[in-house]
Predict the structure of Sodium-dependent transporter.
Amino acid sequence: MSAAREHFGSRLGFILAAAGSAVGIGNLVAFPVAATKSGGGAFLLVYALFVILICLPVMMAELALGRHTDKDPVGAYRTLSGGSKLWQIPGWLALITPFMIAVFYLVVTVWVLGYLVETLGGNLDRLATEAYFNQFINSPSVFVYLIALMLLINGILALGVKDGIERAAKTLMPMLFAILIGLVAFVLTKENAILGVQYYLIPDFSKLTPDVLSSAMAQAFFSLSLGMGILITYGSYMESHQSIPGSAKVVALTDTMVAFTAGLLILPTIFHFNPQIDPTELSDSSAGMIFLFLPKIFLALQDSIGYVGASAFAAVFFFLVLVAAITSLVSIIEVPVATLRDERGMDRRKAIYTVGAVQVVLAAFCAVSFGMVQWFTEFVTLAGANKSFFDLVEIIFYDTILPLNGLLVCLFVIYRWKKANFDQELQDGAPGFAGSFSQRYVNFALGTFIPVFLLLIFINTVALKFFGISFF
Ligand code: TRP
């Protein structure tokens, strides 16, 4: 490649882009629900500990790998593999994983876009009916939304790192923060809202079972975009005088704060609608909450703010989720794009067309696996249950391979690239980090208990999802 590597224009640009990647649908919906069901404040506490003690070191490892090699994940692992073919496998996994996660995440984002458009068209009452979701996801309009979304995201990517990814993050992220805070401020003034806050925050340590701990850990890991090759890629766009530990901390803090704040929106909204609700009955899945449960709650707001007010509230919420999803998709689709450019020497445009063409087809396969096409709907049988193509992609790449990727990053950085080289890279831009307690902790943790933790999660997921065996 002749052209110089693209870089983020500023530290803030990098931080917003990485935070945009990390903040997604899960932060806004899955996290608040999981926290409420699993011990409130106690869950928040262990989640924060996982972020600091386990996720931050992995985040630094990925960023350092990318920045040191100035390459996409495949290239990064190859450069430092010392010629070993085996050590190049994590690179390929860090290419295929984001590629496939993007595929199923695209489909969910398409539904969010559809719900936003429907709400703006005055149809909130329809969205709030039980049958609508099924009808909507099986309607041909999903393909129109899919094309529109692909054009938007790839349009951002086509403008490059600084003018596309960074500029989009600088516009969209402040907007996301403002909308989120605005919605929270509005909903907290509503009757019974405070009950929701109580449910969300009051700690119940008895709920912290091994199962809860393992899913809190998995959630923290996924939420921060770890194991997806994204931070390796974004690290390669970082300038070397910028502090990796410092930036990683800000990104992790932002992601966690957004997830926390979303709880101050979701729970009060639900309790305003029904102060007697038993939150343990809420759906675990973000999709179940966003498309089946929340529309009913939004519609019920019409009693206090009228139908137009309720529709406006719902539309702003769907827009918020859409923005969060778009910045995540931008980051994840950039990984295969960067790989095609670095490894195959393609120009940005051609790489985008290539990735986009395959993804649109696979996303369409996912979209038709809710009844439109029988073969994709009943694609495989896992642990005795029918799984669609969509389910399979999610289970393999989101649930299973992510912790494996995280594990491989830790082992690679500490035992193949070696501690001393990793340290050297971290010190670049963070001179105070050398010899600090944090540095010793990061080195020790990455080489010992973090990979063990991730291995346990990996084994547990494989046993549960593929064989129906539950250890906890
Ligand atoms: N935090 C995201 C979520 O809550 C998960 C995620 C992180 C993600 N990075 C991503 C999803 C990139 C899609 C693409 O949903």
Remarks:
- The mean pLDDT is 95.
